[in-house]
Design a protein that fits this description.
Order of helices and strands: HEHEHEH
Number of strands: 3
Number of helices: 4
Oligomer: single chain
Shape: globular
Structural class: mainly alpha
Strand order of the largest sheet: 1-2-3
Helix content: 25-40%
Largest sheet: 3 strands, parallel
Length: 115
């Protein structure tokens, strides 16, 4: 699947979980790699996302999501964070994430030139 994604996406930057197969392959192919964190999702001890069907996989509290975003940023392993738009209150949660990151001293800017 990773090969198909890379082959079909021309020279677009590749976003994904740090350490994932797709990011390793993208880097080997000379693509721009953007490690991505998901503050509204629970992580398993191995760094993968907890499957959505499992209890606690989705984090719905805006304050908790915002705190998770700051933790992800401070860990230094991600370059961008994604708040899933299919969650109730996603717009408000995204605003809370942005405020928390700015308050923590992070510059919230587009990562793609011209965005």
């Amino acid at each position: 699947q990773a090969h198909a994604v890379l082959a079909g996406s021309d020279d677009l930057p590749v976003l994904g979980l740090p350490g994932s197969v797709v990011l390793r392959l993208a880097e080997a192919w000379g693509r721009v790699v953007v490690p991505e964190g998901f503050p509204d999702r629970a992580y398993a001890p191995d760094g993968r996302l907890v499957p959505r069907g499992e209890p606690g996989a989705l984090i719905k509290d805006s304050d908790e999501v915002a705190a998770n975003a700051v933790r992800l940023a401070s860990a230094g392993t991600v370059r961008t964070v994604c708040v899933h738009g299919d969650s109730p209150g996603a717009v408000e949660t995204a605003g809370a994430v942005r405020r928390a990151l700015v308050e923590a001293g992070y510059a919230v800017t587009p990562w793609l030139a011209g965005s």
